[in-house]
Structures are given as structure tokens and as C-alpha cells.
Amino acid sequence: MNVEKLVEIIGSDFYTGVPDSQLKALCNYMMHKYGIDPKHHIIAANEGNCVALAAGYHLATGKVPVVYMQNSGEGNVINPVASLLNHKVYAIPMIFIIGWRGEPGIHDEPQHIYQGEITLKLLEDMGIATFIIGKETTDGEAAEAMNEFRNVLKAGRDVAFIIRKEGLTNAPNLEYKNKNHMVREEIIQHIINASGEDPIVSTTGKASRELFEARVVNGQSHKYDFLTVGAMGHSSSIALGVAINKPNQRIWCVDGDGAALMHMGAMAVIGANKPNNLIHIIINNGAHETVGGMPTVAESIDLVKIALACGYPNGACVDNFVDLDNVLQAAKGRGELSFIEVKCAIGARDDLGRPTTTALENKKNFMKYLAAL
Fold first, then answer.
1. d(CA 59, CA 268)
2. E strands within 18-174?
3. CB within 8 Å of 130: residues ≥ 6 apart
4. How much is the average pLDDT of 323-332?
5. Class of residue 14 by CB neighbours under 10 A (exposed 0-12, middle 13-18, buried 19+)
6. CB-based contacts of 348, cutoff 8 Å, min separation 6
7. What mean pLDDT, rounded, does the chain reach?
8. How do 278-284 and 287-288 pair as beta strands?
9. What is the pLDDT of residues 170-225, one digit of tens each?
10. Residue among 67, 61, 56 at smallest CA distance from 15
């Protein structure tokens, strides 16, 4: 259905969320209509952050907010939904718009399969009423569902519109870009050149896809890399766990700005433990590029100062390949926890592929390689 019509039917004037490719029509519409406007539209760090922010909006205005997200974010909202919104606690009404990745019967990537299977069950368990929107859903059907939802919301309960693939249409055409010049795929090649045969843990999204394809182009084995295809925001914690238990082996983490923001507390834990064999790299393009390019707040914060404040012994920010190669070599020879922020342009090849090995194969090959070190 037409995304503008759905927004009209819902009738809320405040949206907050984490972008999703299945909700690109909605995300682009929000950016076209409001941009980033604290009164009407905020892209938050993670889905739980969205729920709390929306709860604050309701407390201050008495009105019903909307939270949008991919279904993978349901895990991040379980706690605030159950212990904050629930009618047995504060009875805070909220409308969710959720992209249904991994819907049963629809081909999708491995990290979405199980999440897709349990999407509706999780919402049911949390007491959230649902209505599914697909390509054939009419305006009248959506309006009728919203009319029914209003009674649910008045009782201090929560509701959700579940969006199937291509369920929302008529997205405004927006181009997301920044002033940076380095391309992520080339940045990853430079990291590979510096890391040699050291293990790499890479974040979810295009970074892992580009790392996989770089190994193919180089004629290298994939055994060196753990591709965190799901669990956004957790690659640095995985890398920390590996580094602590392989103290004599240098470990590299290739992270993204959206992922780092999603669970930034991980940086405090890394800084407190100070593994001297971990190099943490955040490729920062200030965007949720994998799901469409909508902005993060990473362009307006100082990640290096944050890392230093969290206890990292050193940190550097680079925006060109000469400096990148220098800081990579310095980190490699330093023998202590290192942090590197790399300023990156938005964009990737149109023909960028996906890993041709399964997630289970990736895990087994990586573990076998680690065991031999």
C-alpha cells in the first residue's frame, strides 16, 4: 500500500526507529517529510532506545508514538515492552511498524530465517496486537485495522503493523551522501593487507559481504574471518571474547558506525579489559547504508574521544589511505589495544554479492583456524 496513506491512517506526529530495507518506503518518507527533527522523527541507536524515547514522548504529550524497526530488533524491545509499556506496569500505548524479514515461504538471508519464523509469536507473547500489510492490502483494510487498534491503544496496550516484502510503496527518491572520499571496499582491502593471516571479526551488513568478496578476489581462504551476519552491534564483543582466549594472537574487528552505536556499552567493556591483542576499527560513513543509507548520529560525535574515555590506550581517526596504512601498521606493531576510526563515503557496488558459504561453515572454518594458532 502507499506509505503516505498508511502514515495518514495512523495519524501520529512522532516517529522513531532503526532503519530497515523492508521499510525503505517509510524511512525515505520520514526523511523526506521531516528529516531528523526531534519533534517528529528521530533515528535512534537501537530499538530499545526507540521504545524508551517514544515512551517519553507519550508521557510528555499524552499522544501515541510510532516505533519502526526490522523484526530482528524485537529482541532489543522485549525488556522495555514487558517492564515499561505493559498494561500491568505503566500501560503506555505504542504503535510498532515492523519489517518482516525471513517471512516463512519467502527466501531470505540465514540470519533472518529463525527470526522470521518467530516474529508473530514474539509479539503475541508480549501481548501486542498485529495486522499484516502486504502488496494486496487495501487502504480500507488498513484503516479498519487502525480503527480497531485505537480501542486497544486507549486501554494502554500496544499494537503492530507487520510489513511484508514490498508491502509499502511510493517511497520518495532520496540520495544519501557525505563528504568523505574513501570507499569501504578499498578500506577493507587495506585492512586485509595489514592483517595478513590474523583473524578478523567483521560486522553485519555490507562490510562482511565486501570482506568475503575481497578474499575471493585475492585468492585467499575465508578461514581467517568470522562474518557476523546478524546480531548487529555485537561484533566487537565477539572479537573481545576471541582476543581474551587467544592472548598470543592478534585479533582485528571491522566494525560499522551504526553497529557501534547500537551497543556502545561494549566499548566500555573492551576498554576496561584492555586486551593488548585487539585492534578495533570502526568504518564510519554516518549511515545505515546496508538498509538504505539513512543517517546515524556518528557524524556528529567524536568516536576517538569516546574510545579513549572508555579506556582504550590510544585512538586515531583517518580520512585518507596514506594515513590509514600508517595507523594500521602502527597498531599492528604496538602490542596494545588500539582503536581506529576510518571516515568513509556512502556507497557500494550494485553487483556486490553475498557469502556463498553457510553461516555454519563459516563458524566451523574459523574455529578450526583459531584452534591451529
1. 31
2. 41-43, 66-70, 94-99, 129-133, 158-163
3. 120, 123, 124, 159, 160, 161, 162
4. 98
5. buried
6. 184, 185, 206, 210, 289
7. 97
8. unpaired
9. 989 999 999 999 999 999 999 999 999 999 999 999 999 999 999 999 999 999 99
10. 67
Distance CA 4, CA 112 (A): 27
Question: Cβ atoms within 10 A of the Cβ of 324, count?
Answer: 22
To 5 degrees, how large is the angle CA 370–CA 194–CA 200?
A: 30
Show the CA angle centred on residue 187, arms to residues 182 and 191, nearest 5°.
155
CA-closest candidate to residue 28, choices 38, 39, 17? 17
Confidence tier at 337 by pLDDT (50, 70, 90): very high
- What is the sign, positive or negative, of the torsion defined by CA atoms of 33, 23, 175, 281? positive
Residue 186's alpha-carbon distances to 73, 189, 190, in angstroms, are 30, 5, 6
Residue in 12, 26, 289 with CA at minimum distance from that of residue 169: 26
3-state class percentages of the chain: helix first, strand second, coil last, to nearest 5? 45, 15, 35
Segment 76-135, tens digit of pLDDT: 999 999 999 999 999 999 999 999 999 999 999 889 999 999 999 999 999 999 999 999
3-class secondary structure, 318: strand
* Cβ-contact 218, 339 below 8 angstroms: no
In angstroms, how far is the first alpha carbon of the chain from the final one? Answer: 54
Would you state the pLDDT for residue 92? Answer: 98
Q: How many beta carbons lie within 10 A of that of residue 163, not counting itself? A: 29
C-alpha count within 13 angstroms, C-beta hemisphere, residue 140: 0
Contact 100, 164 (CB under 8 A): yes
- What confidence category does residue 327 fall into, taking pLDDT thresholds of 50, 70 and 90? very high
> What cell does 235 get?
561484533
Longest dimension (CA), the chain: 64
Instruction: For cell 572508555, name the residue.
Output: 310
Residue 226: its H or E element: strand 225-227
**Using 50, 70 and 90 to split pLDDT, how confident is the model at 254?**
very high
Nearest one of 101, 26, 88, 91 to 64, comparing CA atoms: 91
Q: Which residues pair with 201 in a beta bridge?
A: 226, 253
